[in-house]
Design goal:
Order of helices and strands: HEEEEEEEEEEEEEEEEEEEEEEEEEEEE
CATH architecture of one domain: 7 Propeller
Structural class: mainly beta
Strand content: over 45%
Helix content: under 10%
Oligomer: single chain
Shape: globular
CATH topology of one domain: Methylamine Dehydrogenase, Chain H
Number of strands: 28
CATH class of one domain: Mainly Beta
């Protein structure tokens, strides 16, 4: 019996050592080339989606459109409501359509055919506290958008018919928000979807993660250690590589250089979070995204300090571009970043 116990303890120790063994993190690229895809002196873009060889965007002054990634022609449109030129910060897509959603009141949600020829308003909401931040689709039928709190809960609207109609969720089926807890329409990355699972990140005086395993039917809420407590603090952006590994960034918008308390990592699906790269890398982060195919090790951020890259889950960082006017980014593939913000859309090509 004693011999068996010793063998069991040895096996346990061996397993523990292997589990704690440090990973051999390596960067997947060493060179970055930049080219400009769109220049507009008055445009401000915070929403991007990649559709094949097109990068669709949602912007201020009612503007939306796409830029070609393969050398073809670009397209631009303007959606207005009476005399209002909305600010579109949220964008999402299905196989056949693009959806853009404006901030503030009235909230205006438009469905646009991918040839740009058909534009239909499919949802409107008015109210003093109406302010939508982000929108995503689970599939070609089911979608979700979220916004700042009303009546004590986050604003959630959903569709089950491909975006033709949208319904507002009642607070009775949603978690309560804390005082001063809201969200930021910084980069259309407040919502993350993996299969049926949904994560929504909040910010402000309280910054947490709202999680649903069943497309928004039942919700749990998890605390985070990110900087919070002020109106312009907390999580501004998040991404999940898979159902377990996720990363969130933000900080304090009013202290752009502060790089402590602004980067957090989870490896258990968002239940618990740890601070990453304290005192290193970017300050305020507007958008963070995992590099595709990187096993959840590599991330890129944009914000007021430039474009930063980590290959070890946020432990150390390297600035890869000085651009300080970018609000959002999406990967077209593992070697191509499309980023947008004030006045332009740019492409970063990653290579060795």
């Amino acid at each position: 019996m004693k011999k068996l116990c010793l063998l069991a303890m040895s096996a346990l120790l061996l397993f523990s050592c292997k589990k704690e063994e440090k990973k051999d993190f390596k960067p997947s690229f060493t060179k970055v080339e930049t080219d400009t895809l769109l220049t507009d002196s008055v445009i401000s873009i915070r929403g991007l989606v990649i559709d094949g060889d097109k990068a669709w965007y949602s912007a201020n002054k009612g503007k939306y459109g796409w830029v070609s990634l393969s050398g073809g022609g670009n397209f631009s449109g303007i959606a207005t409501h009476d005399t209002i030129f909305p600010e579109f910060r949220a964008i999402a897509q299905t196989k056949e359509s693009i959806f853009i959603l404006s901030v503030a009141t009235p909230a205006l949600l438009y469905k646009i055919s991918k040839d740009g020829k058909q534009v239909k308003q499919v949802y409107t909401e008015t109210g003093e506290k109406v302010f939508y931040d982000c929108m995503k689709f689970y599939n070609d039928k089911e979608g979700i958008a979220m916004g700042d709190p009303q009546n004590g809960c986050l604003s959630i609207i959903t569709t089950k018919d491909g975006g033709n109609t949208w319904q507002k969720r009642d607070c009775a089926g949603l978690p309560d928000v804390a005082e001063g807890e809201a969200a930021f329409a910084a980069s259309n990355t407040n919502i993350i979807i993996k299969g049926d699972k949904t994560w929504i990140v909040s910010g402000g005086k309280k910054s947490r993660v709202f999680f649903s395993a069943d497309k928004g039917g039942v919700w749990q809420v998890f605390d985070t250690p990110i900087l919070q407590g002020g109106e312009m603090t907390g999580i501004f952006s998040a991404d999940f590589y898979d159902e377990e590994v996720g990363f969130a960034g933000g900080g304090n918008y009013e202290q752009r250089d502060l790089n402590k308390g602004n980067k957090i990592l989870t490896i258990d699906g968002g239940k618990t979070w740890t601070l990453a790269g304290e005192g290193t890398g970017p300050g305020y982060i507007s958008c963070v995204q995992f590099v595709p195919g990187s096993n959840g090790n590599e991330l890129v951020t944009v914000g007021l300090n430039g474009v930063f890259y980590t290959y070890n889950r946020g432990s150390s960082w390297k600035k890869i571009a000085d651009a300080t006017n970018l609000n959002t980014l999406q990967f077209a593939d593992a070697h191509t970043i499309i980023a947008a913000g004030q006045k332009n859309i740019v492409r970063f090509k990653l290579s060795n």
